[in-house]
Amino acid sequence: MVGRRLGLVVAVVAVVGSSLVGGVSCFGTAPEVVVNTWPFVDATREAWSVLRTEDALTAVEKGVSVCEVEQCDHTVGYGGSPDEWGQTTLDAMIMNGDTMEAGSAVNLHATKQAISAARLVMETTNHTILAGRDADEFARAMGLAQGSLVTNFSKALWSQWERGACQPNYRRNVHPNPRDSCGPYAPNAGAGDRKGGVGAARSPVGTFGRNNHDTIAMIALNSRGSMAAGTSTNGATHKVPGRLADSGVPGSGAYVDSEVGGCGATGDGDVMMRFVPCYQVVESMRRGMSPKSAVEEALGRIRRRHPTFQGALLALDKNGNHAGATNCMDFHYSLASADHPDVRVIEVQASVPCPSST
Ligand SMILES: *[C@@H]1O[C@H](CO)[C@@H](O)[C@H](O)[C@H]1NC(C)=O
Ligand SMILES: *[C@@H]1O[C@H](CO)[C@@H](O)[C@H](O)[C@H]1NC(C)=O
């Protein structure tokens, strides 16, 4: 399957290093490593193969691109996660851990190669994020193919949702009642004041997790110690049109600094992005925390306010150590390294049982 182009949203951390040694040597080499969220192993294999001959950034771009083509679990790439209007939109980000440059292309309506669009934003403009139809126009002008992101699969998902009274549904404080009625909606009286609103915000139960692996986030480290991270997603199924995933937000969906390490996130991005968890993870590792302690600590901050939120974090440090943490969600990540050149899928156990939600 190596060499197949897939559509995945992956955050990959690549550690650059000699493939001949298991650890960091005295000669400035680092162990090569690729990790990404979920068992999107074709993406991992592609990134691993590219990492041997090219830079960490290209490994991440090409690895994540595999999921965009394969439509990994229909949560990455075209033809998945229709919004309220039946549209599929893509969000992607890439970050260069050597230069701390980042590029995001978000709310794309017609560009399948979302991570490549993100890299073009990073490398051919002075900006960090381009959004919406203007971002598609940018991608088109820079040479990326345009076309519909809707497929029979996404159309069927959307029709089923509409026939089921538009459930699950991300609206609140509106009428008609979004728990049993489709829109159009209008705000309830007093919805603008914060009572009964913000603290209760949460995603429809069961939206993320086992059958809805919502994002590929990938981190890569090469043998020269260069690191890169990237993400790609089609976001939350049945989202309100215009909604951006945390995957497109630097520091939230992914973050990487070659001097320290990198991080990728997956899960309920609407909650997670308020905590900028990947920035938190990298800064914790900078102050000496292990990847495992760093992801657990960052997740714990979110858990204290949102005990039942569904989300996971993945970290890779500059020495090739990696770890994941998860809350209320089964989580696996994929690893390629000198010890596991054919990719190993690692199951992450939650450190705290999920409280039963009522
Ligand atoms: C864009 O970046 C280039 C290279 O760093 C710089 O020379 C140029 O002045 C920047 N443009 C603007 C408008 O800031
Ligand atoms: C999508 O559905 C249409 C109409 O039902 C059908 O004609 C078409 O062949 C389908 N396309 C694919 C790729 O299955």
Could you explain how this protein is built, in words?
The active site is at 215 (nucleophile). GO terms for molecular function: beta-aspartyl-peptidase activity; N4-(beta-N-acetylglucosaminyl)-L-asparaginase activity. It comes from Chloropicon primus. This is beta-aspartyl-peptidase. By secondary structure, the chain is of the alpha+beta class. The protein has a domain at 2-77 and 95-103 and 215-348: (Glycosyl)asparaginase (Glutamine Phosphoribosylpyrophosphate, subunit 1, domain 1), CATH 3.60.20.30. Helices cover 25% and strands 22% of the residues. The chain has helices at 41-51, 56-70, 114-124, 132-141, 152-163, 269-272, 277-286, 291-305; strands at residues 13-15, 33-37, 90-96, 101-108, 129-131, 174-175, 186-187, 216-221, 227-233, 254-257, 261-267, 311-317, 322-327, 331-337, 344-348. The strands form 4 sheets. Strands 5-4-3-9-8 form a 5-stranded mixed beta sheet. A 4-stranded antiparallel beta sheet has the order 1-2-14-15, covered by helices on one side. It has a 4-stranded antiparallel beta sheet with strand order 10-11-12-13, covered by helices on one side. The radius of gyration is 19 Å and the shape is globular. It binds 2-acetamido-2-deoxy-beta-D-glucopyranose (2 copies).
